[in-house]
């Protein structure tokens, strides 16, 4: 009676061993109950993995090419005003309206750099009258730019509140005032409206 039980236990252990051995020899990494893939499928999977893996040099080259292409799209968007590829600071209807508002009017601040060069040249001439005139002109220019910027900011803030009551308008006025300091031909994105045209 004890012998038959011992034989049964040995037989069951041998069966389990053969099952586990057969599973290990069949596919050591596959979980239980998963059929062994065909050789053609395994080879195609290995080829796809080998094709997708790249060296560090190839990956950095691809990143450089993608970055270059993105910068080229952004440059073209800055010239054409295409919203899809503009930088984050220039995107959105609020920022577009602020740009058009500034570009459609005459701004004293956009002539700040040429006037500053003229004032600097006048102040370097060793003539007291010209130096005094340069100092007075400098003060007049600063006061006019400040007043013009205040008027532009108030009007733009009012128009934005009317046009975009539910949108985020934070930073739009400062964005427009910084744009007004640049000469019109040097502004990016390029102006899309003419002077005097109502945005």
TrEMBL record:
Per the database entry, which stretches of residues form a coiled coil? none
Q: State where composition is biased (Polar residues).
A: 38-54
* Stored InterPro entries: DUF3043
Disordered: region residues: 1-76
Q: Which domain of life is it from?
A: Bacteria
Q: Which residues cross the membrane?
A: 108-127, 133-154
The UniProt keywords, alphabetically, are:
Membrane, Transmembrane, Transmembrane helix
Biased amino acid composition, Basic and acidic residues: 1-13, 55-76
State the name under which the record lists this protein: DUF3043 domain-containing protein
């Amino acid at each position: 009676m004890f012998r038959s039980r011992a034989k049964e236990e040995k037989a069951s252990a041998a069966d389990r061993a053969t099952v586990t051995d057969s599973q290990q020899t069949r596919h050591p990494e596959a979980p239980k109950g998963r059929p062994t893939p065909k050789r053609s499928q395994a080879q195609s999977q290995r080829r796809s993995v080998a094709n997708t893996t790249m060296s560090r040099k190839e990956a950095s080259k691809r990143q450089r090419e993608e970055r270059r292409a993105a910068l080229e799209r952004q440059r073209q968007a800055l010239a054409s005003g295409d919203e899809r590829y503009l930088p984050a600071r220039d995107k959105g209807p609020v920022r577009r309206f602020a740009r058009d508002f500034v570009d459609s009017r005459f701004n004293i601040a956009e002539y700040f750099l040429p006037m500053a060069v003229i004032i600097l040249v006048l102040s370097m001439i060793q003539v007291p009258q010209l130096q005094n005139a340069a100092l007075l002109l400098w003060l007049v220019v600063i006061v006019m730019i400040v007043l013009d910027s205040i008027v532009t900011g108030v009007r733009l803030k009012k128009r934005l509140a009317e046009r975009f009551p539910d949108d985020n308008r934070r930073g739009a006025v400062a964005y427009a005032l910084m744009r007004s300091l640049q000469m019109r031909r040097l502004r990016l994105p390029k102006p899309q409206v003419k002077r005097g045209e109502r945005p």
